[in-house]
# Entry
Amino acid sequence: MGTTKKPNRKPSIKQQRAIDNVVENGGNISKGMRDAGYSIETAKNPSKLTNSRAWLEIMDEYLPDETLAEIHNKLLTKEEVIVRNNMSTGEIEVIPTGQIDVQAVKAGLDMAYKLKGSYAPEKSVVANIHLNAEKQEKSNSLIKGILGRSRDRKNT
# Structure
């Protein structure tokens, strides 16, 4: 038994407002959601919008994979150019250097790895350190002693 694709559904008014806000503000999804009336807690988790069917359909409509692939390929193979003003003719000249535009390629590769999920997930370490009262008192004494010596040195 095959699965059927759910018919396209229009985004809710709030989703549409959030998407419009994201376009207007340059891509800040959380801000776009807050400005559209989503709660602060919901806006802290933009995937609630970006994983919605309405968001995915709009992305498919305005940023189809084929178009993204074409632009991405151009970015990966972009060559540097020098733009200069020709003093004798007064015209602006664009001169290809024949060299790869390193910044464009770097950005393109970074984008490709992100899209493919090739980056390792970010890791963080949380450490809770509990000192007993005696050790805390010794630590405080040591810190006070060090600070006191540094003050004494400054005064001499």
Summary: Helices lie at 13-24, 29-35, 40-43, 47-50, 53-62, 65-76, 102-116, 133-155.
